[in-house]
Amino acid sequence: MIITSLLDTDLYKFTMMQVVLHHFPAAQVEYRYKCRTPDINLRPYLEEIRDEIAALCQLRFNEEELAYLRGLRFMKSDFIDFLELFHLPERCITVSEGEKEGEIAISVKGPWLHTILFEIPVLAIVNEVYFRNECRNPNWEEGRRRLQEKMSLVTADPSLADFRVAEYGTRRRFSKRWHDEVVRTMKAQMGEHFAGTSNVWMAMRHGVTPLGTMAHEYLQACQALGPRLRDSQVYGLEVWAREYRGDLGIALSDTYGLDAFLRDFDMYFCKLFDGARHDSGDPFVWGERVLAHFAANRTDPRTKTLVFSDALTMPRAIALARHFAGRCRIAFGIGTNLTNDLGHEPLQIVMKMIRCNGQPVAKVSDTPEKTMCEDPAYLAYLRQVFQLPPA
Question: Which domain holds residue 130?
Answer without folding.
Answer: 11-136+345-362
